[in-house]
Design a protein that fits this description.
The protein has 149 residues and is an all-alpha fold. The protein is built from five helices and no strands.
């Protein structure tokens, strides 16, 4: 009886150990696969150079006041001003409003698909127009994101 228990215990321990080793091999395989290739990583411009400047308190206050007009960090604002990039004040706010419109239109389509709204004769046309509008909103936002990249 003790031999059976001991053999069973050893057999179970070896199974667990083999499973653990197999899992580690699988993990290492995928790590190695990731090193070899896979999806291309986006080329991100690293901001590795640091420039420090000195300015008076009044100059700093003016800079902070101008930066607060934009939803950007101070360093990003300074970089954009120095490189003469476009600064748009309400750009992010309009995107948020469009996203909210898109979610509202989706909620309306879900309501119209409900059985209680069979009163409308042109329900299909309304659904198609709403879906087209949502698609146009998403296309606009995604094209804007791609332009920024």
């Amino acid at each position: 009886m003790e031999k059976d228990f001991l053999q069973e215990f050893i057999h179970q321990a070896t199974k667990e150990n083999e499973a653990k080793i197999a899992q580690e091999k699988r993990k290492k395989y995928f790590q190695e696969l990731g090193r070899k290739g896979g999806l291309k990583t986006k080329e991100n411009k690293k901001l590795d150079k640091v420039i420090s400047i000195r300015m008076t308190n009044s100059e700093y206050k003016i800079l902070i006041q101008k930066q607060r007009q934009y939803p950007l960090k101070l360093s990003t604002y300074i970089r954009n001003v120095l490189l003469e990039k476009e600064l748009k004040i309400n750009e992010f706010q309009t995107d948020e409003v469009l996203l909210q419109y898109g979610t509202y239109f989706k909620k309306i389509t879900h309501l119209l698909r409900n059985r209680e709204w069979n009163v409308f004769e042109n329900k299909k046309e309304i659904l198609e127009k709403i879906e087209k509008t949502v698609d146009l909103i998403h296309q606009y936002l995604y094209s804007k994101i791609q332009k920024n990249e």
